[in-house]
Write a structure and sequence with these properties.
Blueprint: E1 3-6, E2 13-18, E3 26-30, E4 42-44, E5 50-52, H1 55-59, E6 64-68, H2 71-80, H3 95-108, E7 115-120, H4 123-133, E8 138-144, H5 151-156, H6 164-173, H7 181-194, E9 209-215, H8 221-236, E10 240-246, H9 252-255, H10 257-269
Parallel strand pairs: 3-6, 3-7, 7-8, 8-9, 9-10
Antiparallel strand pairs: 1-2, 2-6, 4-5
């Protein structure tokens, strides 16, 4: 499967063209923290080697695939990887601004509904928020090992701001040019504040919801966080399906890409 990216209008909303992909459905992918969406097509081995896992390519066969990269993430990611194409005008990085701006991107690109939202980790909160804001556009929401953001977790999680010395150190490490210093500094502060300071909202949807969770059998994460989060999701979503993968890592796209896509297809075919 050969994929090409088209980012002529914005570097934050990219269309991935997959040969023989389904053009009757649109899929939007939301990445996790400290990542760019394109990384999800690769597996990063413990020995440092990188191999392609084709997760995005496989996902793109199910629909017209678009990647949404949150600016505060991609700005730092680009500089850390030696790129500097971050000349942007993106005033706010809070979750509500993300939802509004993503909708603008969708309108500008003339993206067709219905939309299928696929997300990983903290990206789940952005997918859920978008689906709540524009319910008539959404066919299905998929959460891949999402952050377990219950009301209790939201109340007890405190994001400690980066100190001025830490900001300076980060800017030095990623060799930020003076012309982009203010933008990158703003993205660093946004990354820090957005991690666990997103205001709690009820995860109630009007469309089907499917979750995929990794269960680490050697830890208590499943019983302490996953089960309470599933109970909260079930409380607000009667149309919900859950899948569990055991000891497969948080990055299920790396450890079981075909399994994920097969189950996503199964759920889409049944709705």
């Amino acid at each position: 499967m050969k994929s090409t990216s088209n980012s002529k209008k914005t570097s934050f909303f990219k269309r991935i063209k997959i040969k023989n992909g389904n053009r009757n459905l649109t899929i939007i992918f939301f990445h996790g923290k400290n990542h760019a969406s394109q990384k999800y097509n690769y597996t990063y081995e413990t020995d440092g080697t990188i191999r392609k896992n084709y997760f995005l390519d496989k996902l793109g066969t199910l629909g017209d695939l678009f990647l949404y990269d949150r600016p505060e993430e991609i700005i730092r990611f680009n500089y850390e990887n030696g790129e500097s194409n971050c000349d942007v005008n993106y005033p706010d990085f809070d979750i509500d601004s993300h939802v509004v701006n993503l909708h603008k991107f969708i309108l500008n690109e003339k993206v067709k509904s219905p939309l299928v939202l696929v997300s990983h980790s903290i990206g789940a909160l952005y997918a859920l928020k978008f689906a709540q804001k524009f319910p008539s556009k959404i066919k299905h929401v998929f959460l891949i090992d999402p952050i377990q953001y219950t009301e209790k977790v939201a109340k007890t999680s405190v994001s400690k701001p980066l100190s001025e010395s830490e900001i300076v150190e980060h800017l030095h490490i990623i060799n930020t040019p003076k012309s982009s210093r203010n933008l990158v500094e703003k993205s660093l502060r946004a990354l820090d504040s957005n991690t666990y300071s997103i205001p709690y909202f009820k995860p109630k949807l009007e469309c089907p919801l499917t979750t995929f969770f990794n269960v680490d059998t050697k830890s208590n994460v499943h019983t302490k966080f996953t089960i309470p989060y599933l109970e909260e999701l079930k409380k607000y979503n009667s149309s919900m399906t859950n899948y569990f993968f055991y000891d497969r890592d948080h990055y299920l796209n790396e450890t079981n890409p075909q399994g994920l896509v097969t189950k996503i297809k199964k759920e889409l075919d049944s709705t």
